[in-house]
Design a protein that fits this description.
Helix 1 crosses helix 2 and helix 6 packs across helix 14. The chain folds into 3 domains: 172 residues, Threonyl-tRNA Synthetase, Chain A, domain 2 (2-Layer Sandwich); 246 residues, Bira Bifunctional Protein, Domain 2 (BirA Bifunctional Protein, domain 2); 90 residues, Rossmann fold. It is built from 18 helices and 27 strands. The two termini are 36 Å apart. It has 570 residues and is of the alpha+beta class.
Length: 570
C-alpha cells in the first residue's frame, strides 16, 4: 500500500470511528460492533434499541460533522484485556472480539469522550475527515453468520478531496443510468422470469450477442490446437464425491433422482473434462491435450444475492482444461495470457491487472512441484511483458494461480479470467499418461477461463460501453431508414446485399417520419443508420449516420462493406 492509499485507508477508518461516536450520542443504548474500511469508504454494524430508518442518515451525518468540527486528536494505546473487559463490560460483541485477540493486550483508540477497540490505522486529527457521505442502511449479521445476531449496517463513502467524491458519485449515477438490467430490457437482449429465478432468458438479439462472444473466443483459440467438447448437464452423484465438490459445495448444488440413485446438475465442468481425458490411455506424445468447453453450469445462489447477469444460478463458462507435463506448463500459460490480453483489449478494457497467488500454508504437492509451477506462471507473465503483483499464500491448496481483473469505463474492477494449476484433480480421478520411459505419470491440469461467465461478461460490457456496443459485436450493426415507401424496394435490395456479405442489418418498416426513425435507432444504440431518400435511389448510394449524429452522404454499399470489414478485424 503506497502513501496515498495508506492515507485514504486511515481517513476512512477514522470516519468509521466518528460514525460510532455519533450513533452513541444520538441513540444511547445502541451496541456497537465493528466498523471496517471498504473500497470506497466504510461501514459500521450496530445493534440499536430501535431500528434505524433511512431518514436517520441525515441526522447521523449532521452529528458526525459536528463531532469532526471539534477536531479531536485520536490517541491510541495498548491496554490489558482485563481493563478492556471492564471498559466494554456491557457490550457482548466487543467482549467476544477481545477474547479472540492473541496475547494479553489489546488496542484502544480515543477521540473526545469516545473510545473504541481497535488495532490502529487512523488520522492524527479527525478534522481531516471532510469529504464523506452516508449512503445506506441495510441488514447484516454478526460476523456474517446467518445464525448469529441480526444487526443493522450503516454504510458511507469517504474521499481525500471533494473532486474525488464528486467523480465517484458521477460514476455511481452512470452505473445506475446504464445498469445492464435496464439496458437488457430496453435493447431487447434478455429477461428474467419468476418461473426460473436467477436463470436468464436470452432473446434473439441477446443470443446474437452471446454467440458473438462464443465465435470470438473460437477465433482467438484457432491458432492453438484446442479440442472443443460438450459434457452432460447431469452427472452421477459419485462423480462429485470423487472430485471433492460434494463435500465442499453440496449446499450450492442441485440434485435429482434418476433410476435408483441421485445425480447432480453440474456446478463445474472439470469432472466431465477428466472423464473425456480418461476415455483411453494417453501417451506423453499427446500432451499437452487442450480441451475446451462452453459448459452450462448451475449453482444454487441465495435469492437475496441474485443481481441481473452479474449473479445468476445458471450460466455458461468458457472453460479450458489443459493436461500437460510440468515442463510444458510455462508455454501453455503464456499462450493463455496472450489470449486473455487480446480478448480484453478487443472489448476496450485498457487496464488489465494480473495477480500471481502463491503457495498457502496448507497445501498438497511437493516443494519441487510448487516451485516449478509457480516459476512457470511467473516466467509466463514476464515473457509476455506483463506487470503483476504477488499475492503471497493466496493460492489454492492444490496449486498456484493467476487471477485477472479488468477495469471498466466507470473505474470498477471485475474479476473475470483465471489460470489455475491443479495437482489434485489427476490424483482424485487417477488420471495418468505413459511417459517416454513407459512409466505411468500424472499430468498437471490447468483450469482457465477468460470471460469467466459469459452472462456476467455481457453485463460487464453493456455497462462498460453504456449500451453502445462496438460495431463488430453489436447484435444489429446497421438499420436502414427509408424516407418514404417509394424507396422500399431499394431498401430491401440494399439490405440483401449487406446481409449476403455477413452484416447484421434491419429495415425500419414502421412508416414513421424519418426523424422518428432516427430517434428510435439512437435509443436502440444501432451503430450505423443508413438513410435512403429518392436522391440516394437515383445515385445508387446511401447516407450514413452514426450515433453522434455525423452524416456522410453519397456512400456506396461497396465502400460501406470495406469499412465494415476493417471494423470486424479485432
Amino acid at each position: 500500500m503506497d502513501d496515498k492509499q495508506q492515507y485514504l485507508h486511515n481517513l476512512r477508518h477514522t470516519a468509521a470511528h466518528v460514525i460510532a461516536q455519533a450513533v452513541l450520542q444520538l441513540y444511547p443504548g445502541t451496541k456497537i460492533t465493528i466498523g471496517p474500511v471498504t473500497e470506497t469508504g466504510f461501514f459500521y454494524d450496530f445493534l440499536p434499541t430501535q431500528s434505524f430508518k433511512e431518514e436517520d442518515l441525515v441526522k447521523i451525518e449532521t452529528r458526525m460533522r459536528e463531532i469532526i468540527a471539534k477536531n479531536y486528536k485520536m490517541t491510541g494505546k495498548q491496554i490489558s484485556k482485563d481493563e478492556a473487559r471492564k471498559l466494554w463490560a456491557d457490550n457482548p460483541f466487543k467482549l467476544e472480539l477481545i477474547e479472540g485477540i492473541p496475547g494479553d493486550m489489546v488496542g484502544a483508540y480515543t477521540q473526545g469522550e469516545f473510545t473504541d477497540l481497535c488495532r490502529g490505522g487512523h488520522l492524527e486529527y479527525i478534522g481531516e475527515v471532510q469529504h464523506f457521505k452516508l449512503t445506506s442502511i441495510s441488514g447484516s449479521y454478526w460476523r456474517a453468520n446467518r445464525d448469529g445476531q441480526a444487526l443493522q449496517r450503516i454504510t458511507g463513502i469517504a474521499f481525500a478531496t471533494q473532486a474525488d467524491m464528486d467523480d465517484y458519485l458521477k460514476r455511481l449515477e452512470d452505473a445506475e443510468k446504464y445498469d445492464h438490467r435496464r439496458l437488457g430490457k430496453e435493447l431487447e437482449l434478455f429477461s428474467f422470469h419468476d418461473e426460473a429465478p436467477g436463470m436468464p432468458f436470452f432473446l434473439s438479439k441477446g443470443l446474437t450477442l452471446f454467440n458473438g462472444l462464443v465465435d470470438y473466443m473460437r477465433k482467438i483459440r484457432g491458432p492453438v490446437d484446442y479440442q472443443e467438447i460438450r459434457t452432460p448437464l447431469i452427472l452421477n452423484e459419485q462423480l462429485w464425491k470423487t472430485s471433492g465438490h460434494y463435500d465442499h459445495y453440496k449446499e450450492n448444488m442441485y440434485f435429482t433422482k434418476i433410476d435408483e440413485g441421485f445425480s447432480c446438475v453440474k456446478p463445474m465442468n472439470c469432472p466431465g473434462s477428466v472423464l473425456v481425458y480418461k476415455e483411453r490411455p494417453r501417451s506423453y506424445r499427446e500432451l499437452p491435450l487442450r480441451l475446451s468447453e462452453f459448459g452450462y453450469v448451475h449453482r444454487h445462489e441465495l435469492s437475496g444475492t441474485l443481481h441481473g447477469l452479474f449473479r445468476v444460478r445458471a450460466f455458461i463458462q468458457d472453460d479450458q482444461h489443459i493436461y500437460a507435463t510440468i515442463d510444458q506448463l510455462g508455454g501453455e500459460v503464456e499462450r493463455l495470457l496472450a489470449m486473455a490480453s487480446r480478448l480484453y483489449k478487443a472489448f476496450e478494457f485498457n487496464k488489465i491487472i494480473f495477480m500471481l497467488s502463491t503457495r498457502p500454508e496448507k497445501s498438497m504437492g511437493s516443494d519441487e512441484m510448487w516451485e516449478k509451477s509457480t516459476g512457470a506462471l511467473q516466467s509466463a507473465l514476464e515473457r509476455n511483458n506483463i506487470a503483476y503483483t504477488i499475492e503471497e499464500g493466496d493460492g489454492a491448496f492444490y496449486g498456484p494461480k493467476i487471477d485477472i481483473k479488468i477495469e471498466d469505463a466507470m473505474g470498477r474492477l471485475w474479476q473475470c479470467g483465471t489460470v489455475q494449476v491443479d495437482f489434485n484433480l489427476a490424483i482424485n480421478f487417477d488420471a495418468t499418461y505413459i511417459a517416454a520411459d513407459q512409466s505411468r505419470q500424472r499430468p498437471v491440469v490447468v483450469h482457465s477461463v477468460i470471460y469467466g461467465s459469459l452472462e456476467r461478461f455481457i453485463g460487464v460490457i453493456l455497462e462498460h460501453f453504456k449500451g453502445r456496443l462496438p460495431f463488430w459485436i453489436s447484435p444489429v450493426q446497421a438499420r436502414i431508414l427509408a424516407i418514404s415507401e417509394k424507396q422500399a424496394d431499394y431498401a430491401q435490395a440494399a439490405a440483401a446485399t449487406l446481409r449476403a456479405a455477413g452484416l447484421r442489418v434491419e429495415i425500419d418498416n414502421s412508416g414513421d417520419q424519418i426523424s422518428a426513425q432516427i430517434r428510435r435507432a439512437q435509443l436502440d444504440k444501432i451503430p450505423w443508420m443508413l438513410v435512403i431518400g429518392q436522391k440516394e435511389v437515383d445515385q445508387n448510394t446511401v447516407t450514413l449516420r452514426d450515433l453522434e449524429g455525423k452524416q456522410e452522404f453519397g456512400q456506396t454499399l461497396a465502400g460501406l462493406l470495406s469499412r465494415a470489414k476493417a471494423l470486424m478485424e479485432v
